[in-house]
Write a structure and sequence with these properties.
Layout lengths: L24 E14 L2 E8 L2 E7 L4 H6 L7 E10 L14 E12 L16 H6 L1 H4 L3 H23 L3 E2 L17 E3 L7 E3 L5 H9 L4 E10 L10 E11 L3 H19 L4 E2 L5 E3 H8 L13 E2 L1 H4 L5 H9 L4 E7 L5 H15 L5 E6 L9 E3 L6 E3 L9 E3 L8 E3 L1 H6 L1 H11 L6 E7 L1 H18 L7 E2 L1 E5 L4 E4 L4 E4 L10 H11 L1 H6 L4 E6 L2 E8 L4 H10 L4 H7 L1 H7 L6 E7 H9 L29 H6 L11
Helix pairs in contact: 4-6, 4-19, 5-18, 14-16, 17-18
Length: 642
């Protein structure tokens, strides 16, 4: 092939040449990754989307004069001869590592100013600067690979969904306001002055309408928009989800369909990490009691237990007094295997005070050494020999009591106050021994369970109990249907308002008659998928009966007229034959974050906003021009100064 017959910019990519191309000519275009001077010869690493090719510029060629002027991130076209790399210089890290291109002609296509952020390596630069120059940040090899892996993951999702008989339906972006639990982004209408569209928080109502329309299995990689505060595991503004809905299904049908699909996706992209097969199904109340969270990290083996009775009437007056005063008070124990040292216990106590503004974190730690005056026997498991425990014994394998049971001795203020019997009973209940510890929190569980869960996580992290080499997936089921809204002093939906309560209409009416506590105890056919401490999906079997829908909303203070006005499309549809249906939605960014090992979802999005919900690259949000506001019949009112 001659230069005249080649494409204007390239005959192949920077990842395309192999040893089979040696002896031919090639035209490459890309970015100057690095320029290295080796004894007069210039070596140019030329990079594009597909890879890197080493180019050699010799002082005896015309190309050398231009090569001398090149700087990092300039865009160039290079013609040259493909030849083998000299012996001993091949690079197995590159797919093009056996060849190099001997430059015969170089054309500068675009120059680059001095870079505000480097694109080579993994520099520690401020996130806001990286987001402002995201187009440069995306040139970094690691970030580029993350984005491409995201595309592979979504491609795999689509393939598995199609294989399972689902069809991808697009749903509207401009829609009506929805009670999904977050604030809407409103879009003013020019044609209808004073009225607003809303960007969809999720395609919830539309996918249910598709089921009513007779389409059996829906999915979509759907954009969602929520005006909510950013978090490490949530993108501000917009995000994507694998949205799913199915007709004529019960909860188990959804589980049996989606669990294998998501398991295969995790296995495909786990990079060798183990993936849970046969996900456990954990009721919400059990998750709160055992793990202090409805999205527990099950790689952490710690499980909390209720030890209230061990403290009732005990000498530890702080807890005993709380229990006596209020029957709702419980004491939870958080075991800490291998944490049996005063130094560790004091460190956790300090963590509770400084990080969570708690008064402290009570503890007992156990040791093999008895307090003075305690008569026990030493036991050598190898020889079966026993002897009184004294210094002359020389060695100590186990401590046993007169019945042959192994002993461990509790230490710390709680152990001293509750006495030997109660302390030993706690140890036995929790399955602990010498070298272990246990921490305690007391109060009304709804007030402290999140702190207890955070302590469980911290203990697991500090003691290196978390298995970093697996993805632990599970279903969390039986969520509360309602919760108490303290700000408005009323019953509110705790999760998805379109879920079917367990027991249906009859359960709603019975709970309403019994009062607030019965309503708060009502469960929903609602579930989450959790993985390694993150909620990655949420779903439910839907409330498809119009009268049940009205009753559910009436309990939260909305009238039938309100339901018809706010959810008219769905409410009307249910009047004309709605199939039982259900579904779920999995967060794309959270799944990709886990599978790529990233710390935040912003790392796996192409052009994310920063933590203040600002797009620094495009300078959004920005002020609208007066003419635009007039066309929309809108006047901006500045917020009151506080």
């Amino acid at each position: 092939m001659t230069a005249a017959s080649m494409h204007r910019y390239r005959s192949t990519t920077c990842g395309g040449l192999r040893s089979t191309d040696i002896g031919g000519v090639a035209r490459l275009s890309g970015w100057v990754h690095r320029v290295r001077d080796h004894g007069g010869l210039l070596f140019i690493d030329l990079r594009d989307h597909y890879g890197i090719t080493q180019v050699v510029a010799d002082p005896d060629t015309q190309a050398f004069k231009i090569a001398e002027t090149l700087r990092s991130e300039w865009v160039v076209r290079i013609d040259g001869k493909v030849r083998p790399r000299p012996d001993g210089t091949s690079n197995s890290d590159l797919v093009t590592g056996e060849i190099e291109v001997y430059a015969t002609e170089i054309e500068i296509l675009s120059e680059a100013k001095e870079l505000p952020v480097p694109v080579f390596g993994e520099p520690e630069y401020p996130e806001d600067l990286r987001l402002k120059y995201r187009f440069l940040d995306l040139r970094r090899e690691s970030l580029h690979a993350i984005i491409m892996k995201r595309l592979e993951i979504t491609k795999s999702m689509r393939r598995h969904m199609h294989d399972a008989g689902f069809n991808e339906f697009p749903t509207p972006i401009l829609t009506a306001s929805s009670p999904e639990g977050a604030r809407d982004f409103l879009v003013p209408s020019r044609i209808h002055p004073g009225k607003f569209y809303a960007l969809p928080q999720a395609p919830q109502q539309y996918k249910q309408l598709l089921m009513v329309s007779g389409f059996d299995r829906y999915f979509q990689i759907a954009p969602c928009f929520r005006d909510e505060d950013p978090r490490a595991d949530r993108l501000p503004g917009e995000f994507y989800q694998l949205d799913v809905e199915m007709s004529f299904v019960e909860q188990d049908d959804i589980f049996q369909t989606m669990e294998p699909i998501l398991t295969r996706i995790f296995e495909e992209f786990s990079d060798g990490k183990a993936v849970t097969n046969g996900w456990p199904r954990i009721p919400y109340d059990e998750a709160i009691a055992k793990y202090g969270s409805d999205k527990p990290d099950l790689r952490n083996p710690i499980e909390m237990q209720d030890v209230t009775e061990h403290f009732r009437g005990s000498g530890f007056k702080v807890f005993a007094g709380m229990i006596e005063k209020d029957p709702k008070v419980r004491v939870w124990a958080i075991p800490a295997p291998t944490g049996g040292s005063r130094a560790f216990c004091d460190r956790m106590n300090k963590w509770a005070i400084e990080e969570h503004k708690q008064p402290g974190l009570g503890y007992i730690f156990w040791r093999a050494t008895p307090d003075s005056g305690v008569e026990v026997t030493a036991f050598d498991a190898a020889t079966g020999k026993t002897w009184p425990n004294d210094a002359s014994a020389g060695r100590l394998i186990k401590l046993i009591d007169s019945n042959g049971k192994e002993l461990a001795f509790g230490a710390g203020p709680i152990a001293k106050n509750i006495g030997r019997d109660r302390e030993a009973s706690i140890r036995r209940q929790m399955g602990l021994t010498s070298s272990d510890a246990c921490f305690f929190v007391a109060g009304i569980p709804s007030n402290f369970y999140k702190f207890a869960g955070a302590a469980r996580d911290q203990i697991g992290y500090e003691l290196k109990l978390i298995d970093e080499n697996r993805f632990a997936l599970a279903w969390i089921v039986d969520f509360p249907f309602y919760e108490w809204n303290e700000e408005d002093k009323k019953i509110d939906f705790s999760h998805n308002p379109f879920s079917m309560p367990k027991g249906g209409h009859a359960a709603l009416e019975a709970a309403e008659k019994e009062g607030r506590e019965a309503l708060l105890a009502l469960k929903a056919n609602q579930y989450d998928i959790v993985c390694n401490g993150y909620e990655i999906a949420s779903g439910s079997v839907r409330n498809h009966l119009p009268e049940t829908m009205v009753k559910a909303f009436e309990i939260t203070g909305l009238s039938r007229a309100d339901v018809e006005a706010r959810f008219g499309g769905l409410y009307r549809a249910f009047q004309y034959g709605a199939p039982p249906h259900g579904g779920m939605a999995a967060g794309i960014e959270r799944v990709v974050m886990l599978l790529t090992g990233c710390k935040t979802v912003r790392e796996v999005a192409l052009f994310p906003m920063n933590q203040q919900a600002a797009d620094l690259l495009m300078n959004a949000p920005s002020e609208a021009a007066p003419k635009q506001l007039r066309e929309l019949s809108i006047r901006v009112v500045a917020p009151e100064k506080k």
